[in-house]
Amino acid sequence: MKIYKPGDKVIIRKDLTPGQVYGSMNATIRMCEFAGKECTIISLSDKDVFVIKEYFDKYHNAAYFTQEMFENKNTLDEMTLDVLESIKNLEID
């Protein structure tokens, strides 16, 4: 999984469902309002628990989002880089 830091832009997954557990957190109805939207991480509460700026600005408190609540928009790019790195490391006889 990607390592996120404050300032990173993430997209909240479109299929975020209230009451569903994602990682170590339950999604709330308020959190689901941000489904499909690009948001900014403003702080990390733990290595996999994040505070989102747009949620904080709207509700003036923190909800804790997890990586599992984000769309993985970089999956293809990361996989492509892994394959290219593997090919680069192959030795041809």
Structure explained in plain terms:
The longest helix has 15 residues, at 75-89. The strands form 2 sheets. The chain has a 4-stranded antiparallel β-sheet with strand order 1-4-5-6. Strands 2-3 form a two-stranded antiparallel sheet. Helices cover 28% and strands 25% of the residues. The protein is built from 3 helices and 6 strands; from the N terminus they run E-E-E-H-E-E-H-E-H. The chain has helices spanning 29-32, 53-59, 75-89; strands spanning 9-11, 21-22, 25-26, 38-46, 49-52, 64-66.
Blueprint (SSEs and pairs):
Blueprint: E1 9-11, E2 21-22, E3 25-26, H1 29-32, E4 38-46, E5 49-52, H2 53-59, E6 64-66, H3 75-89
Antiparallel strand pairs: 1-4, 2-3, 4-5, 5-6
Q: Summarize this, please?
A:
With about 90 residues, the protein is of the alpha+beta class.
Mean pLDDT: 86
Main sheet: strands, sense, barrel: 4 strands, antiparallel
Q: Please indicate the percent range of residues in DSSP E strands (runs of 2 or more).
A: 15-25%
Number of strands: 6
**Rg on CA atoms, Å:** 16 Å
Q: Determine the structural class based on helices, strands and strand pairing.
A: alpha+beta
Could you give the order of the helices and strands? EEEHEEHEH
Tell me the distance between the termini: 34 Å
Whole-number tally of structural domains: 1
Identify the strand order in the major beta sheet. 1-4-5-6
In the predicted model, the low-confidence regions spanning at least 5 consecutive residues are none
Helix content: 25-40%
Annotation field: number of helices: 3
- Outline type: elongated
